[in-house]
Amino acid sequence: MLKYLLEKEFKQILRNTFLSKLIIVLPLMTIVVFPYVTNQEVRDVKLGVVDNDSSPLSRRLVEKSTASSYFRLTDVSPSYSEALRAVEAGTADLILEIPRGFERDLMRGEAGQVMISANSVNGIRGGLGSQYLSSIVADYGNDLREETGGMGISGETPAFRVEMAYRFNPTLDYKVFMIPGLIVVLLTLLCCAFTALNIVSEKEAGTIEQINVTPVSKRLFILSKLMPNWIIGFLALAFGMVFAWLVHGIVPEGSLLTILLFSALYILVASGMGMVISNYSDTMQQAMFVMFFFMIIMMLTGGLFTPIDSMPDWMQWCTAVNPLRYFTQVMRLVYLKGSAFIEMLPEFFWLCGFVLVMNIWAVRSYKKSS
């Protein structure tokens, strides 16, 4: 019986020319285009300068700041009030104000002070931009210490030097962090959406009534719906990983078998979730609205864009029932750190639990009636 049900499902899939295109186009858009859209790196910050000292050392600080690829000098004002007008007009994001006597204080061994003002309407741009500029000013102070024989700006010799080492993502490329998460989104969208619309489309076409009057059990019917989605999910995973390698040069540091194992579990979770949605929906429009409602919640609370540790405690507890959270952690651990299966046993058991809950729910919620 299962053989004929699968034959029916695959014939329906092959007749659907839109689906075959979607399996290629969706990974192409998600992996090739979206990493550039979701990039949260702050670059090309518009910098305004108020140099009240007009000395060689102050000009050197300005040149060092604008030499960075993060900043673009867009305004030079004679006073701070005029620089604020540039910020209000949108021609400057940050203001670097150098006070009078800047060079004199440095030559006397006193602390040289500058003021950084940030437009924080966009909190990320203002916060990161001011941190970048503060780092440049600190580097400038280190350069002066070396040139003056180790004497610091405050007249004291620094006790140590801090050297940063970035593990697992040494270039700080945001795409390396985002692409594993986008592969998770790809599988969720494709497997959940296709499954959610599958049974509903048969309800609208009336073909589901022909299944209801047959001796096919609910378990066998749900299984015949899930197995083709499993294959579609692995095809989408393959396309996503190939595009990530060809376009961005990103390959997993860990085992490919580990990714395949966890992907097999997550595809069953996403397909089971779509099956549950379809069982409670009467129309395709209703199924789409319900699916996107849960998709938005899952993506926002799954640690894809913001760290879960940064969320309030009560929200961190709520994310425990989000399967996307665990698969996103697995993909990033395997891609960036090369973690082994034994290190991800908690995620494995959580996904196994979701597989059981979602698919048992899908079988129980399917109403087989004549």
UniProtKB/TrEMBL annotation:
In terms of InterPro entries, this protein maps to: ABC-2_transporter_component, ABC2_TM, ABC2_TM_bact-type
Question: Cellular component GO terms, alphabetically?
Answer: plasma membrane
ABC transmembrane type-2 domain span: 134-369
Q: Give TM regions.
A: 18-37, 177-200, 227-250, 256-277, 289-308, 348-366
- Cite a single GO MF annotation: ABC-type transporter activity
Q: Does the keyword Translocase apply?
A: no
* Source organism, top-level taxon: Bacteria
- Classify the main location: membrane
Q: Which UniProt keywords apply?
A: Cell membrane, Membrane, Transmembrane, Transmembrane helix, Transport
Per its UniProt record, what Gene3D superfamilies does this chain match? abc type-2 transporter like domain
What protein family does this chain belong to?
A: Belongs to the ABC-2 integral membrane protein family.
User: What is the recorded name of this protein?
Assistant: ABC transporter permease
